[in-house]
UniProtKB/TrEMBL annotation:
Originating organism: Deinococcus xinjiangensis
Keywords (A to Z) from UniProt: Menaquinone biosynthesis, Methyltransferase, S-adenosyl-L-methionine, Transferase
Upper classification of the organism: Bacteria, Thermotogati, Deinococcota, Deinococci, Deinococcales
Protein name: Demethylmenaquinone methyltransferase
Catalytic reactions of this protein: a 2-demethylmenaquinol + S-adenosyl-L-methionine = a menaquinol + S-adenosyl-L-homocysteine + H(+)
Family annotation (Pfam families): Ubie_methyltran (PF01209)
GO annotation, biological process: methylation
Length: 250
């Protein structure tokens, strides 16, 4: 029998283990590197395009206090960074991710739209920025993939200035009831199959529902944010499929 002292060997593209902190970061990197070319298309198809509206709402909350310097972590292919910069061209926007293949696509998209965004490689759990250097820090659909949520929040807090704002857009676990059951069925049975066909990666789109089902309930994430020091509130979107958490550093 394998004990924690004798970890099983891992394939480079192995699906991230939602409960295995040690290897999750590396597996998440390998997974997003492999699905980068099909990530945007799959986002639109699998969310029926609704993710565009969720991002707009999260961007409005992130920009509500007129921030000057903004950091978008786990920016991926940059959709949220583009939304922020498109709405508020005056902001000084840095967008970071630890997967170069995702960042390469983000850079191309920003260049095509003539949006000036600084894209940088970086681990959200060990951000390469000094304390108190941003007025807002955002994270859309990236937080769930962190191997240590408390560390992710601590880093967001650290790089925020006093009165700064953190905004997290995520998929909470589906609620109970009829809609939640339907959504679980879609998530477990349909989404992995469509994802596998379009991306050619079977594991990535079984990881997605597993990671959502293992993610803390919105109230629990709010508690974690409060424990970090944030004043928080959250809003459920589309019958609770997505949630926006706002944390103010007061
Ligand atoms: C589902 S994508 C979300 C991308 C983008 N924010 C969006 O809204 O479409 C998750 C992204 O989080 C990144 N990520 C996960 N863990 C990370 C970490 N510890 N540091 C930096 N990026 C991370 C992945 O590389 C991936 O690009």
């Amino acid at each position: 029998m394998l004990t924690p002292m004798t970890p099983a060997p891992r394939k480079p593209s192995q699906k991230p283990s939602v409960g295995d902190k040690q290897d999750k970061g590396q597996d998440v990197q390998a997974m997003f590197a492999s699905i980068a070319p099909s990530y945007d298309l799959l986002n639109r198809v699998l969310s029926f395009g609704v993710d565009i509206f969720w991002r707009k709402e999260a961007a409005a909350l992130a920009l509500a206090h007129d921030p000057k310097r903004v950091l978008d972590i786990a920016t991926g292919t940059g959709d949220f960074a583009l939304e922020l910069k498109g709405r508020a061209p005056q902001i000084d926007l840095t967008a970071s991710d630890f997967v170069p293949e995702m960042l390469a696509i983000a850079r191309e998209k920003a260049a095509a739209k003539h949006l000036e965004i600084t894209f940088e490689e970086g681990d959200a759990l060990k951000l390469p920025y000094p304390d108190a250097s941003f007025d807002a820090v955002t994270c859309t659909f990236g937080f769930r993939n962190f191997s240590d949520y408390a560390q992710g929040l601590a880093e967001m807090w650290r790089v925020l200035r006093p009165n700064g704002r953190a905004v997290i857009l995520e998929f909470p676990p589906p609620a109970r009831g009829l809609f939640g059951s339907l959504f679980r069925f879609y998530f477990r049975q349909i989404l992995p199959r469509v994802g596998a066909v379009i991306s050619g990666n079977t594991d990535a789109y079984t990881y997605l529902p597993e990671s959502v089902l293992a993610f803390p309930e919105p109230e629990r994430l709010a508690q974690l944010m409060r424990a970090t020091g944030f004043r928080t509130r959250y809003k459920l979107l589309s019958f609770g499929i997505a949630a926006i958490h706002v944390g103010d550093k007061r």
